[in-house]
Amino acid sequence: MRVRLILTSFLALATTSLAADKPPCCRTALPSGPVSDQSLYLLDSTWTSDVGREVKLGVLRGRVQVVAMFFAHCEYACPIIIEDMKRIERALPAALRDRVDFLLVSFDSERDTPAALRAFRENRKLAMAHWTLLRGREDDVRELAALLGINYQRDARGQFSHSNVITILNAEGEVAFQQSGLNKDSKETIAALEKAMTAGAAKAAP
C-alpha cells in the first residue's frame, strides 16, 4: 500500500511538471460555452507556437486571454506592451491569477520563427504555464489584426509601426475589453478580466 501511495504521488508530481512545461496552446482545452459569430475562435487559420506545435486559436477556449500583437525585433513599443501585460498579471488577485492566460501573436511572419519566439520568451521571462507565443502566415496575421482593430505597416528597415492595444478575450474568444496606449493604468482592464471570468464561471455552471 505504501509503495502504491508513493507511486501515485510521483505520477501526480510528474504530470504537474509536464503541464508546466507546456504553454496554454499545447494543453487540453477547458470546457466553455457555445461559440458565437463574434468569436475569434471561428477562424480556421493555423498558427505555430514557440515550441513548434501547429494549433488553431480555438485550443485556447475555456480560459480568459490577455492578447497583444507584437514582433520580437521591436525597438520601442512592444517591450512596453509586454511589461504592461506583466503588470496586469502581477496585479491580478492571487485567486484569479492562475485562471488567466496571456497570448502574444507576431506581426513578423518572416523573422519570428519558433526558435526566435522561444528565445524571446526566455529573454523576457514569460512563464511557460500561462504565456502562448504564436506566429502565422502574413494573410492570417492581417486577418487577426483586422478583427482586433489593430493597424500595422512594415517599413524599409523591417520594423513595424502598429497600434498599441491589449485585448481581453472571454472564454469563448469574444472581445470583452481593449486597453489602448502604453503605460496605461490597468484598473479597468483588471475589472474587465474579473467580469469575464465571473461570466465564464456562470456559463460553465450546470
Widest sheet, order of strands = 2-1-5-4-3-8-9
CATH class: Alpha Beta
Task: Evaluate the radius of gyration.
Answer: 18 Å
Q: Kindly name the structural category.
A: alpha+beta
How many beta-strand runs? 9
Number of domains: 1
Let me know the average pLDDT. 87
Main beta sheet: 7 strands, mixed
Any overview of this molecule?
This protein is of the alpha+beta class. It has one domain (24-204): Glutaredoxin (3-Layer(aba) Sandwich). Helices cover 37% and strands 20% of the residues. The chain has six helices and nine strands; from the N terminus they run αβββααβαβαββββα. The strands form two sheets. Strands 2-1-5-4-3-8-9 form a seven-stranded mixed sheet, with helices on one face. The chain is globular and about 45 Å long. The termini are far apart. Mean pLDDT is 87; it is low at 1-18.
Concise structural overview:
With 206 residues, the protein is of the alpha+beta class. A hairpin with a 5-residue loop joins strand 6 and strand 7. The chain contains six helices and nine strands.
Protein topology:
Blueprint: H1 2-20, E1 47-49, E2 54-55, E3 64-70, H2 77-91, H3 94-97, E4 100-106, H4 114-124, E5 131-135, H5 138-147, E6 152-154, E7 160-162, E8 165-169, E9 175-180, H6 187-204
Parallel strand pairs: 3-4, 4-5
Antiparallel strand pairs: 1-2, 1-5, 3-8, 6-7, 8-9
List keywords for this structure.
6 helices; 9 strands; single chain; disordered N terminus; Glutaredoxin; two-stranded antiparallel ribbon; seven-stranded mixed sheet; 20% strand; alpha+beta; 206 residues; 37% helix
